[in-house]
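User: Hi! I have a protein structure encoded as tokens and I'd like to know what sequence might fold into it. I'm fairly new to this, so please keep things simple.
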């Protein structure tokens, strides 16, 4: 029996909770075990960018974070599920600060590519034995487990131009397969909007079907995402369905804000289109080949930083800026 976990980022018993539960009830009716989590109930600290997780992963030592809070509990509840739905209020056309914080905590520590590289390093050190094996810990493979995920943004107005791409960025880190990625404008009356509740139920059914297919594929030793399809509206990006692009000034170069693929912009039959070169598709940030490229770049740059830190010139420059201007803080 597939398990679906729903996470609501809204106020208690508000529209986000309601829509999230509507998705879960439909998944339950489709034969899934379900669990509901209210993100506001959790103690989740902000990522400080200390890069401890990166250094540990790239040495094959351990997958860890310096924070001791509820994040690991949440992450592993999701990792042990077959499908996830996240329902989030829209703030300033995008996701909430809490969603961003959780997304930040997922990466780079929970990035599939980083954990894949760390697993290779750790297994290599263990095979070498002796001093090389000291402190080595292979990442928990459940971190890299395949999963179906759907997102719903709940908007109090019609401002929601960034929420879908920001939601999908969270899926990119753990390489989850996005099934539906919706946002709802003018949603104050969501509870009594039958068409919205029916759409939530359909998202639940789609998620249940995808989770069951992933479970079936894994059991058969096949590609986990074989036959698992995106069910939402087609986007401008033909790879990840994102509609947000960075247009490089002075060039015909459009960079997808989610998968990072670079293509050329054109107008076909009055509609905007971005075309990618087939030889560049392996660079997409949301697939393993692209993650390996990115992970190796991180590994290389961490090595450069480690060597730089040994130099006196680096130490002198750090000390200069440390002493140059002192930070102010409120008096307690």
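Assistant: Happy to help. Inverse folding works backwards from shape to sequence: for each of the 332 positions I chose a residue that suits the local structure. Here it is:
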């Amino acid at each position: 029996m597939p398990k679906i976990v729903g996470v609501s980022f809204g106020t208690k018993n508000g529209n986000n909770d309601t829509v999230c539960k509507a998705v879960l009830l439909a998944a339950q009716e489709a034969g899934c075990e379900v669990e509901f989590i209210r993100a506001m109930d959790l103690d989740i600290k902000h990522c400080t960018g200390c890069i401890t997780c990166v250094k540990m992963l790239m040495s094959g030592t351990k997958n860890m974070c310096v924070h001791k809070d509820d994040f690991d509990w949440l992450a592993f509840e999701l990792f042990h599920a077959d499908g996830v739905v996240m329902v989030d209020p829209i703030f300033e056309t995008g996701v909430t600060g809490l969603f961003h914080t959780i997304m930040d905590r997922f990466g780079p520590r929970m990035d599939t590519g980083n954990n894949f590289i760390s697993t290779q390093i750790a297994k290599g050190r263990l095979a070498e034995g002796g001093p090389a094996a000291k402190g080595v810990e292979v990442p928990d493979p459940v971190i890299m487990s395949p999963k179906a995920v759907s997102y719903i943004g709940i908007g109090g107005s019609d401002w929601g131009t960034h929420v879908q791409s920001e939601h999908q960025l969270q899926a990119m880190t753990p390489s989850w397969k996005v099934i539906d990625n919706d946002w709802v404008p003018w949603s104050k009356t969501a509870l009594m909007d039958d068409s919205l509740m029916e759409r939530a139920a359909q998202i639940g059914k789609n998620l249940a079907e995808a989770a069951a297919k992933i479970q079936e594929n894994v059991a058969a030793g096949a590609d986990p995402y074989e036959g698992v399809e995106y069910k939402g509206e087609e986007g401008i990006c033909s790879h990840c369905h994102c509609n947000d692009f960075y247009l490089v000034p002075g060039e015909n170069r459009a960079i997808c804000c989610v998968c990072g693929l670079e293509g050329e912009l054109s107008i076909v039959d009055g509609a905007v289109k971005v075309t990618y070169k087939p030889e560049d598709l392996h660079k997409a940030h949301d697939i393993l080949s692209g993650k390996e490229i990115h992970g190796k770049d991180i590994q290389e740059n961490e090595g450069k930083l480690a060597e730089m830190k040994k130099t006196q010139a680096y130490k002198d420059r750090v000390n200069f800026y440390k002493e140059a201007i002192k930070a102010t803080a409120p008096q307690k």
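A useful reference point when you look it over: The longest strand covers residues 177-184. Feel free to ask if any position seems puzzling.
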